[in-house]
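Cross-check.
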Amino acid sequence: MSLFPTEQWLDEYKALLNESSALDDVAAGWGVGFNGAILLAITDLPLDDTTVRELPESVLADVPDSICEGLTGLTYEDAPAEIDDSVRAELPPVVQDLLTQLEKNVVGGAVYAYVELEEGTCNEAEILENPNEREVGAVIRGPCSTWQQIIDGRPTTSAVLSGDLEISGNGLLRPQYTALLQLLGDVAADVETTHLFEEPGTSFQDFVLDEAVRQPIAVQRFAYQQAAWATRMLSLF
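Predicted model, tokenized:
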């Protein structure tokens, strides 16, 4: 299980993107002649509302009881500054790493993941310490709670239609690439994930919209896959 949103989760996401045969089909032409890099902006992390004692049980399992008692009430926001080096040395490596990532990767309550795509290949994926340090062709922005819903199976297209995700930049809203947008969410849902923050519920309105878009999405992806297959076959002659 990979913790979301962390560097390890993003590594798993990149690996699954590169294993996806569907990406070869729906991303045909993406990033060719233009910047295909995408910035995933995961905003509104509930750092002030989540305490270290609320970390997943699998993460806290090896933390000494004496230290656990001292973490009561300590939020993610305050943890990096409040937990000194002597205490960190007693923590299991996974917790030490989380504290380091909180310090260097959280910018203004957000995490920014850079994903470089070119057709069916993810060439690079990294969490940026500065969201402006790499040039991108598109930005997908939304609160952490929405990204968690997508990882739990919510259609990306539904999140865009409801306004929970915002897209800026080139390409992803063009008709020929909406299947790619959806696939990016589907692959995220395939990552074996443990959420660092409490999982949000789904409103009735979102549920209705989610169900309404599922079948058209599947039909559209099938159509693009068939078109890509036909194009490859014709290229043989």
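The radius of gyration is 20 Å. Confidence is low (pLDDT under 50) at residues 219-237. Passed to J.P. for a second look.
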